[in-house]
Amino acid sequence: MRLIDTLHRWTGGLIGLLLALLGLSGALLVHKNAWTLVPHAGDPRVEDVRQLAEATQRIMADPAARPQSVTYASDDFGLLKLLFRDGGGAYADQHGAVVMRWSGQWERPELWLFDLHHHLFAADAGEWVIGVAAICGLFFIVTGLILWWRTRRTFEWRLWPARMSRPAIVRHHRDLGVVVAPLLLLSLVTGAVLVFRPMAVLLFGPGAHAQIDRALAGPPPRDAKPAERLDWAGMIVTAKARFPDAELRSLTLPRKKSGLITVRMRRPQEWLPNGRTTIWFAADSGALVAARDAVMLPTAVKGYNLLYPLHAAKVGGLAFRLVMTLSGLALTLLGTLAVWTFWFRRPARRPASRLRRRPAVS
After folding, report:
1. Which parts of the chain span the membrane according to its record (predicted)?
2. 231, 286 in Cβ contact below 8 A?
3. What is the spatial distance between Cα 72 and Cα 250, in angstroms, rounded to a whole number?
4. Which residues of 83-108 are buried (b: 16+ CB within 10 A; e: fewer)?
């Protein structure tokens, strides 16, 4: 038990602040669309395929100003988001008219906060660090519950420590941790599996990782470069005709020389915000190459697609967003106070008492 206590304290002291940062940024991102203040952000989502097709044609027509990707409006955010290869971007209304531009993510708080939470401003290396931090967080939950069990009779519910002394903070940390453990477990498990896909075997059984990779892989790459003039409107019409009940979510130019333009859609049965229903078009001609219906994916893959909506509170409405906000704020409080008590409020060591020599009895 002493070893568990030591590992729990030292790991928390070393990585607690990172978990606190992830918790706070996650709590803010849950409500990102509400605090992203841009003209027309509150417009209702357009479902008319002709207007969507015309807006896409208008945005993609000029090869010199063509974005790398277009994310279409959703029910809670009424703008299109355009991202360019040089790191810049823009918001456009649902007619395709640009209402705001930026040259880098630092000009938009919702963009750099997203990058902080998902990559720590360090691309794939930062994502790996976040995955390790999530696994450490799971270790905290398990060991914390073990350590709490010894003192369960002294449990007391408090949002804040009774005093800012080390014993009071440690007690608050222990009791608050056991209350929010289920929420933290949801946040950390989903986060860890999204970063380290092989961990999906823990949730969906042996072979799940390979099955997910196969099911989500696109068609074989094609030796094709994007033509200067393509019927972008026709691609949108074709996509909607293939899946009439699906919501148009994004259009992306070829990546890693795939030679394929990707259109993602979201069918009513899907929780994933951008869906996994996908259509691929040839980059040189705009011809339909392949289509994938997310409803027909294997059960393990459907389960995997539920992880991000749960992690980011993209389902359940305001009630679930508040639940995940509580999870993030609790992680922030637990991580911050853990680091503070470990490094700055540690008990002072008492000097060893000197033994007094007793006078000899004559």
Report:
1. 12-30, 128-149, 176-196, 318-344
2. yes
3. 6
4. bbeeeebbbbbbebeeeeeeeebeeb
By three-state DSSP, how is residue 346 classified? coil
| Torsion angle of C-alpha atoms 79, 39, 94, 259, degrees rounded to 10 | -50
Residue 40 neighbours by CB under 8 Å, 6+ apart:
78, 79, 93, 94, 99
Token pair of 292, please?
Answer: 């994938």
Q: Which ranges of the chain would DSSP assign to H, the alpha helix?
A: 2-29, 32-35, 49-60, 109-119, 123-150, 166-195, 201-204, 208-216, 232-242, 299-305, 307-311, 317-343
Residue indicated by tokens 């350590």: 147
**Distance between CA 342 and CA 322 in Å, rounded?**
30
Tokens representing residue 341 in the block:
């008590």
Q: What is the pTM of this model?
A: 0.90
Measure the CA–CA gap between 58 and 233, rounded to whole angstroms: 9
Query: What three-state secondary structure class fits 331?
Result: helix
Which tokens sit at 257?
A: 């020389």
- Residue 251: Cβ-neighbour burial (10 angstroms; 0-12, 13-18, 19+): buried
- DSSP-derived pairing of the beta strands 89-92 and 288-292: unpaired
Residues 6 or more apart whose Cβ sits within 8 Å of residue 31: 321, 325
Cα 195 to Cα 75: distance, rounded to the nearest angstrom: 27
C-alpha span between 298 and 294 (Å, rounded): 9
Beta bridge partners of 282: 260
| d(C-alpha 118, C-alpha 128), whole Å | 10
Average pLDDT, the chain: 92
Grouping H, G, I as helix, E, B as strand and the rest as coil, residue 315 is coil
**pLDDT digit string, tens, across residues 34-74:** 999 999 999 999 999 999 999 999 999 999 999 999 999 99
| pLDDT tens figures, 283-339 | 999 999 999 999 999 999 999 999 999 999 999 999 999 999 999 999 999 999 989
Domain-by-domain residue ranges, the chain?
2-30+120-195+313-343, 44-108+212-305
